[in-house]
């Protein structure tokens, strides 16, 4: 427990709509609620207003750069900020800002924490060196056992520095009992979905490794020819990839069963609309936030059997696991899930939500991070 009021500084590139950014906001909310000051240094972004409502002060800084020269300049900015605002601890969530923060904390003697949010490919010595900053913290937080194992293998990080803290779900926000029928009808109407059709939802930004093509290929193989696949997530400028998805759906004859609806803030309503929520990632998810959120909503979840998904799903009890990049296997599981009797789906959803409540609440994540801060500051 940290007794005196302190100031914690988070650094990340931007407050975009990803999982790491959501974690920063949730931690900021906990810091603020316990009477401490929280600063977020970043280049702004669409979640800035959400972060401010959580009690954070945004310090706009061009931390989204990967230029070595500009990263060094950012280190000087952070060093000055640490001194001027009496920052007692710095928490980094992404590699380029982490380098700037590490240089600044080395100069000021400020405790430094990192959260390893991704698996970070290492195809070259230079890339390995670039990634290594995420293991330089006085405490290194891994978002799953999968990521902790990767850190041990790559860097030999001492166990006394390493902490596994899974992401958490706000069980008040992701609660099927709070859903209002009018909201679901409005979402269905906006997305041109007939509520009598089976709905398969894949939430996640539109990028190739998230497996949108795998689901489109599976859709063409399913016996449930009326099933509709909804892809919720921003393309973030990847218009060529969007064109590839449209072309693939047309080539396979399922274009009328595919909806590319873009980003939505109301993920709980989107999940409630779905009969099945899919994670088809072809590369391992470090944690897989939407997989846990879908279980909290009592949805049947189908995910690729690697990375964090293998930890957060109890196969055959709270979800299904399928091999990576296998449209035929995915189609078979989706058909089996849609064939389940209604009463079985209800029981399945109740079991999945209880699993999340026991292991992946946002409160548990927040308390665990605050405990890490206390280790370094008391």
Explain what you see.
It is a single chain. The chain is of the alpha/beta class. The chain has two domains: 7-168 and 361-377, 3-Layer(aba) Sandwich (Rossmann fold); 176-359, 3-Layer(aba) Sandwich (Rossmann fold), CATH 3.40.50. It has 15 helices and 13 strands. The protein has helices spanning 19-33, 48-53, 68-84, 95-108, 125-131, 145-155, 181-190, 212-221, 239-251, 267-273, 289-296, 309-312, 327-339, 342-359, 362-377, and strands at residues 7-11, 37-42, 57-60, 89-92, 112-116, 139-142, 162-164, 199-203, 228-232, 258-262, 276-279, 300-304, 320-322. A seven-stranded parallel β-sheet has the order 3-2-1-4-5-6-7, sandwiched between helices. A six-stranded parallel β-sheet has the order 10-9-8-11-12-13, sandwiched between helices. α4 (95-108) links the parallel β4 (89-92) and β5. α7 crosses α10 (267-273), α8 packs across α13 and α11 (289-296) crosses α14. The longest helix is centred in the C-terminal third of the chain and has 18 residues, at 342-359. The mean pLDDT is 95.
Spatial sequence of strands, sheet with the most strands:
3-2-1-4-5-6-7
Segments where pLDDT lies below 50 for 5+ residues?
none
Helix fraction bin: 40-55%
Distance between the termini: 8 Å
Task: Compute the CA-based radius of gyration.
Answer: 21 Å
Question: What fold name stands as the CATH topology of the largest domain?
Answer: Rossmann fold
Helix/strand structural class: alpha/beta
Please give the CATH architecture of the largest domain. 3-Layer(aba) Sandwich
Report the sheet-strand fraction. 15-25%
Apparent shape = globular
Characterize the largest beta sheet: strand count, sense, and whether it forms a barrel. Answer: 7 strands, parallel
Mean pLDDT: 95
Number of domains: 2
Number of helices: 15
Work out the number of β strands.
Answer: 13
Order of helices and strands: EHEHEHEHEHEHEHEHEHEHEHEHEHHH
CATH C-level class of the largest domain is Alpha Beta
CATH homologous superfamily placement of the largest domain: Glycogen Phosphorylase B
